[in-house]
Amino acid sequence: MSLDLDALSIRAMNGQPLFAPLSLTIPAGEVVTVMGPSGVGKSTLLDAIGGHLGHGFHFSGAVRLNGRDVTSLPAEARRIGLMFQDALLFPHMSVGDNLAFGLPCSLRGRAKRRAAVETALTQAGLEGLYDRDPATLSGGQRARAALMRTLLAEPAALLLDEPFSKLDAGLREDMRSFTFEHVRSCAIPTLLVTHDPEDAAAAGGPVIALKAGGA
Amino acid sequence: MKHQGRLLRMAVLAVVGLGLIAPIALGLWQTGRAAFGILPALGRDVVSLDPWRALVELPGFATSLRLTLVTGLGSTLLSLLLAVGFCAAVHARITPSSGARMLTPFLAIPHAAMAVGLAFVLAPSGWIARMIAPIAGWAHPPDIATVNDSWGLGLMIGLMVKELPFLLLVILSALSQISVARHMAAGRALGYGRGIVWIKVIMPQVWPLIRLPLWVVLAYALSVVDMAIILGPSTPPTLAVAVTRWFSDPDPAMILPASAGAILQAVIVGGAVALLIGLEALAKRFGRWWLRRGGRGLSTEPGLRLATVVVMTLMALGVLAILSLVIWSLAWRWSFPQIWPESWSPKPWARAQGGWMEALGTTLVLALATVGLSLALAIAWLEGEDRANRRRAPWAEAMIYLPLLIPQIGFLYGLNAGFLHIGLSGSLWAVIWGQVLFVFPYVMIALTDPWRALDPRMIRAAAALGAGPNRRLWAIKLPVLLRPILTSAAIGVAVSVAQYLPTLFMGAGRVVTLTTEAVTLSSGSDRRVTGVYATLQAGLPFAAYLVAFALPAVLHRNRRALSGASAT
């Protein structure tokens, strides 16, 4: 598995490109970090790759997953997972149901699905919390639950949008190693955007600096 | 200071309780007594079920009941489905403020004016038939009942044209409280299609925010009278119209079955709301199972597109209806297959001048009085909450919504009987009182959110500078909140102008407004005069909104944060 960006460039409504055209290849299990000042368009870059680009942005270049061009596919058909700053668990579902929501529907049967979710909860140190309201979890628990939800959907690539920036310093370490361990063991190509150099160091992969403007 | 806050709260509670809630309870009680045979004025003082027996045996009763259920439930559920589908399809492209600008005209138009306009458009001799005529080769209006049809389809279209914009606005404002774009991205990144994310992730979060407004829509649709007279079937009509007719029957004994019908109307609304609650509970159980299965279903796009097309068509119908009001009021010769009038004239306006001037004057006085009272009461209520530093209790919230959930026909007869007792019936005061029951809740609901959104640091800063509670209210809150206050006032004007039943009952037929005239004239044959009244009826709320928009822009022209020029 690999994620390739080919001369990816995004222009805002005013026609100005957000950053210079970006080309890179992320092999399976590797984490590439994109760094840059806030406002340069890091999140917009992830939106473009994941297919969530908002109204008014123009996009050129290509996104390839395992050599297949997914640029024209809608977000839901790309199989590209997404993690945000705040975990964004759905507030109307229990913790376990949030994970079940990520589970592919090809896994049939109530008992089997429940077991898969319980296994994931245990892996994330959340055993016994299936029926909990996500709002009652701690920040770290929420972040782990969100990562498990994303991984259960079996993504072919993973995008991390400053996923550790809202956690306390101590938790941040734990969450970093937890996340990167899972990424490596699942062999998923991963793109991380952050403005924290420690994130980049922990990720261990290549670091790309995103500069404002086109040229 | 604490003491003053308490005094204000007690005073507001007393006014709302005695002025608004007690009359409704009294009205329901009186109507209920008559429904069970007790009507001292006619010498009936034995409890019996005879009124109910008489009601069931009245000609057309069963059909009326069926029509009410089909049009009320059908229009509300269809409107909800369409509004949700439309929002799912276009939410990313419209902001709440642009949505509000687009939808406000539809909300401002009173039901009766919209109904008259729709009748002009949909009737066999209406605009749509005139557009088809050249193609179909019609020289005469086709012989199909397109309005007042026995199925109630014309009425359902009318209700939907008014309900859809309301539900859209409610859903859009609920969506602004949820990070839709990010939930959408999270759901799609997990492999769910747009429409499915909408149903499984967004709607469950929106629902608690729109539940109460939806009940109001449902209660209204089940018990509407003016629109049902104009667009609905006539023999037999819907239950609310039938009950209104029975109440005004020359035979006073008809009051007994009419009262039973009025109570039945209230029971129907209660039952319909209970049905919605039941469906919600069912959806919760079924929904959990459905969410856990993780089905991705990618194929909701055609449904969303269909909803968009239907919504656009209904909105276009609404625009045509409003235009046709103005055009008919100025048309002189306009024979059937012609799309435009052959000659124009201001004569319809001149001929009916004496009539409409008087009705316009009464309508204006009623609107100003009811809105003034309602605004004062709403501001006193909100300020009382601020001074006591307390959130609104659920029972207080229920008190505000109560008049909107109980069908008007359920208590207006009984209330008027009470007013007759104290010699107030038929006066302008009685009508003002009757209208405030419905104007106050809307003003209160419209003002609450902006009032609470006021930055509390601003008030604390004023207090730290030595400003007492009264100065904080008059010098800070009211000027800063001028825009939302005027907007609430405009909504109040629209509600007051639209009131039909309270004016009819409390005015005992002696208080004539644009609305009562438009409804009466709509059954006549002179579209020009009807157009004059309906245009005025539609124009008044428009004018109110214009003032609400223009005044802050002028008064605060050098204050970008308050003039409404910037995005707020």
Automatic annotation (TrEMBL), chain A:
Organism: Celeribacter halophilus
InterPro entries in the cross-refs: AAA+_ATPase, ABC_SmlMolc_Importer, ABC_transporter-like_ATP-bd, P-loop_NTPase
Chain ranges passing through the membrane: none
Keywords: ATP-binding, Nucleotide-binding, Transport
KW Cytoplasm (keyword) present: no
Annotated PROSITE patterns: ABC_TRANSPORTER_2
Superkingdom field: Bacteria
Gene Ontology molecular function: ATP binding; ATP hydrolysis activity
Keyword ATP-binding among record annotations: yes
Protein name, entry field: Putative thiamine transport system ATP-binding protein
Residues of the ABC transporter domain: 3-215
Automatic annotation (TrEMBL), chain B:
Segments crossing the lipid bilayer: 7-29, 67-90, 102-123, 151-175, 212-234, 254-283, 304-331, 359-382, 394-415, 427-448, 480-501, 532-555
Keywords of this entry: Cell membrane, Membrane, Transmembrane, Transmembrane helix, Transport
Coiled-coil parts of chain: none
Subcellular location, principal: membrane
GO cellular component, one term: plasma membrane
Compartments in which it is found: Cell membrane
Annotated family: Belongs to the binding-protein-dependent transport system permease family.
Protein name (record): Putative thiamine transport system permease protein
Species of origin: Celeribacter halophilus
